[in-house]
Amino acid sequence: MCMALQIGRAFQDGLDEFLSERGAVFAGAFIVLGLANGIVWASLSQGLLDMFLEMLPSSAQANQASMGSNTALALDIPVAVAAVGALALFVVSEALNIVAIRAFASDTTDPIPDSVGRRLGKTVAVAIAAGVFTAIAVGAGFLLLVIPGLVLALLFFFVRQEIALNDSGVFESISNSISIVTDNLLATFVLAIVLAVLGLVVGLVFSYLPVSLPPMVLTTASTILSSVVGVFSIAVTTVAYLQATESDHDVARETESLGGL
After folding, report:
1. Residue 253: its pLDDT value, please?
2. Residue 167: left (phi > 0), alpha (psi -120 to 50), or beta?
3. Which positions ≥6 away from 154 have C-beta within 8 Å?
4. Are 174 and 134 in contact (CB under 8 A)?
5. What do you get for the CA distance between the two ends of the chain, in Å?
6. What is the DSSP string of 44-105?
7. What per-residue confidence (pLDDT) applies to 144?
8. pLDDT interval class at 219 (50, 70, 90)
9. How many CB atoms lie within 10 A of CB 213?
10. What is the pLDDT of residues 186-216, one digit of tens each?
11. How far is the C-alpha of 219 from the C-alpha of 214, rounded, in Å?
12. Choosing a second label site near 171 at 20 to 30 A (CA), which of 80, 81, 88, 154?
């Protein structure tokens, strides 16, 4: 039987993990990844925009500068290269999420435990497949008057933790996440809302500054802050998952111990 998820404990333990050496390591890694993603996607967007504008009459091309004002981090690289880079960074991002979850769940003091890389390729493939499936389901739910999409997003809250820590398959991870959430519905809802609001506030904070910042500075600072908050969210969600499934993990450890006798 799973233990009840305690919101205060989840945030406190998650904050402790976030403020540890391990949290600093992953904050740095996610910041680098976030900036790389920002550059690649801005470059891809700018390249696609340029291609589109080249097909328009010359009079319409005068709007190019204003239309490209939101691509502060864009570099002059070929669209094909940017597209491949975006795909590669997507896979790297999923792998880094898996590694971070396993690290935050580890009992060791090492910032990056040796066990985080186990069957990483297969796990990333499963995580991507599950991510695509859940994204389609949530998207379809949002088309149905929004509420079903929010409900599905909540029910899928622990899918990535299930895949990373329990080595679950696509549908098994979804089923297990739904079971955990329904057993801890109110606590998971509050946890998800707090993390979502935190992410929203961070995303909007630079929009209300009393001073005007250059687009590149604004984009860079926003990316860095969002990446740090993302690491905090991973830590809290992982701790909450472990808390909610603590009894199950104890049984699994006892079974492994008996199997080794």
Report:
1. 43
2. left
3. 181, 188, 189, 192
4. yes
5. 25
6. HHHHHHHHHHHTS-TTGGGGHHHHTTT-TT-----HHHHHHHHHHHHHHHHHHHHHHHHHHH
7. 81
8. confident
9. 13
10. 999 999 999 999 988 887 877 777 777 787 8
11. 9
12. 88
Q: Are 201 and 55 in contact (CB under 8 A)?
A: no
> What is the chain's alpha carbon radius of gyration, rounded to the nearest angstrom?
21
CA–CA separation, 255 vs 261, rounded Å? 10
Are the C-beta atoms of 26 and 231 separated by less than 8 Å? Answer: yes
CA distance to 121, 125, 214, per residue, from 183 (Å): 31, 28, 47
What count of other Cβ atoms lies within 10 Å of the Cβ of residue 188? 25
pTM for the full model? 0.86
pLDDT higher than threshold 60 for residue 84? yes
Report the half-sphere exposure of 146 (CA within 13 A, side-chain side).
0
- The b/e string for 17-35 (b: 16+ C-beta within 10 A; e otherwise) is bbeeebbeebbebbbebbb
Is the per-residue pLDDT at 249 higher than 70?
Answer: no
What is the residue type of 214? P
Report domain extents, the chain. Answer: 7-118+185-246
Tokens 């992410």 belong to: 199
State how far the Cα of 191 lies from the Cα of 199, in Å rounded to an integer: 12
Instruction: Give the Cα separation of 156 and 43 in Å (integer).
Output: 32
Instruction: Give the chain's mean pLDDT.
Output: 86
